[in-house]
Amino acid sequence: MSEQANGNTTLCGEPNGKYDALLLQNQLCFPLYAVSKEVVRLYKPFLDEIGLTYTQYIAMMVLWEKRSLTVKELGEYLYLDSGTLTPLLKKMEAQGLVSRQRNAADERSVIVSVTAEGEALRARAATIPERIGACLPLSKDEAETLYQLLYKVLHAI
């Protein structure tokens, strides 16, 4: 990703053929990091409308789908640890979006469930994916390819 050749970014390095692995522009991780940060920033005004942060939003998406699951399971879906999830879920519980209960079958685990208020929020969030898609400079095919490549990497590491 070091040089622009006819508008295409490449990993070939400097014009003289030397490749410097420690240049920021040659790192795959940097555009992933920067794009992730900027996409989350794009979500902010839409999520502000419904009173959620990005992390709360992705937690709610899992809960809208699964209805109820343990904190550990939610963390596995979101790639978040319980130290991050616990304060997040406490805040969401205070907002009335989720309920948390000790698992009767295993007192060590906590079950998180979406409440009626949390479920009602789903309708208000329904247009967000389409609105975000309209902000991105990708065709439907490009977005699908990017999605597949990102998940290929995610599932391999």
UniProtKB/TrEMBL annotation:
It holds the Pfam family Staph_reg_Sar_Rot. InterPro entries: HTH_MarR-typ, MarR/SlyA-like, Transc_reg_Sar_Rot_HTH, WH-like_DNA-bd_sf, WH_DNA-bd_sf. One of its GO terms (biological process) is response to stress. One of its GO terms (molecular function) is DNA-binding transcription factor activity. The keyword Cytoplasm applies. Residues 25-155 form the HTH marR-type domain. Keywords: Cytoplasm, DNA-binding, Transcription, Transcription regulation. One of its GO terms (cellular component) is cytoplasm. It is found in: Cytoplasm. The keyword Transcription regulation applies. PANTHER family: ORGANIC HYDROPEROXIDE RESISTANCE TRANSCRIPTIONAL REGULATOR, TRANSCRIPTIONAL REGULATOR, MARR FAMILY. This is Organic hydroperoxide resistance transcriptional regulator. It comes from bioreactor metagenome. The gene is ohrR_12.
